[in-house]
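=== RUN LOG ===
request id: a7f3
mode: sequence -> structure
chains: 1
length: 86
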Amino acid sequence: MRSLLTRIRCDAGQAFVFVAMSLMVLVGMAALVIDGGSWWRAQRHLQTSADAAALAGAQDLPNQASARTDALDYAQRNYWGIAARP
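=== RESULT ===
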């Protein structure tokens, strides 16, 4: 019984557990930062494409059909995910 209690109270291996837990937290935080940065970059790219399309369409504004065509053309050239709607 005495050797079991001394084995339970032994501190050997505590540093390994602490380092392993800290490493998991660090890797998790790095993954969140990378995913957040990727999302932010994609959102900025989409916003820039939408702004460019709006400015391109505004140049032809008295003619709405031409403005719409130019805006969609700019949007599709700058961002591949934008599709023309009827």
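=== NOTES ===
The CA atoms of residues 62 and 78 lie 24 Å apart.
Helices lie at 2-9, 14-58, 64-78.
=== END ===
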